[in-house]
Write a structure and sequence with these properties.
It is built from six helices and eleven strands. The protein has 215 residues and is of the alpha+beta class.
């Protein structure tokens, strides 16, 4: 498994530095410039850069991508996923099905947990010393699993359960694939990965991509 990260605070607005747009495909450029807010443009550009890097390292390019019925990009020889939120864009590549999600820890929308989480998941949040952190821990774990399955948001949040264990988190009841979870917190963000095989990860595993040096 390999982890990738871009800190958007170190990026120019792509509309103010057109050379940045040359780092991604024409299709990604169109997506980037549709965003109204500079940080949204940076995050979209960062996602394109990480995707390009993952493909390049595996001898592929965007013409090798296919898209599932849920619009998840897939390739024959590598499994990967990209996510962005707050100040970061992150990505992961693996030799098996994988999903990742990142969120900036903030005031949590607890009504989502009340309506869509399993009872034990809601109870975990309620007794946590930091409910906001607990919510985004479960939220990113759930998002990463939904992405790993390839179903994304078409998989209902309450159709599977994330269970707190002495060693971290595990998948409880689910109609989908089994998986292993890992979480990481850095710079006020929660990052989660779901993978079909057991794995370990640490912040030192990230390859921080120097966007400014690429142009």
């Amino acid at each position: 498994m390999k982890l990738y990260r871009i800190h958007i605070i170190h990026m120019d607005d792509p509309l103010q530095n057109q050379r940045l747009l040359e780092l991604v495909s024409p299709k990604r450029r169109e997506k980037v410039i549709r965003y109204r807010m500079p940080d949204d443009r940076k995050r979209s550009l960062g996602a394109g850069i990480i995707l390009r890097e993952i493909l390049r390292e595996n001898g592929l390019n965007e013409s090798d991508l296919r898209y599932s019925e849920n619009e998840k990009p897939v390739a024959d020889s590598v499994f990967f996923n990209v996510s962005h939120a707050g100040d970061y864009v992150v990505g992961v590549s693996s030799d098996c099905e994988v999903g990742c999600d990142i969120e900036k820890i903030r005031k949590a929308p607890m009504e989502i947990a009340q309506r869509h989480f399993q009872a034990m998941e809601s109870a975990y949040i309620q007794v946590a010393p930091d409910r906001d952190k607990a919510f985004f821990t479960l939220w990113t774990l759930k998002e990463s699993y939904m992405k790993m399955t390839g179903k994304g948001m078409s998989l209902p949040l309450d159709s599977f359960e994330i269970v707190r264990t002495t060693d971290g988190f595990a998948l409880g009841k689910s109609p989908e694939k089994p998986c292993f979870f890992q979480i990481m917190e850095f710079d006020g963000h929660m990052f989660s990965v779901s993978n079909e095989k057991d794995f370990a990860m640490a912040e030192s595993d990230f390859e921080d991509l120097p966007v400014a040096e690429m142009i």
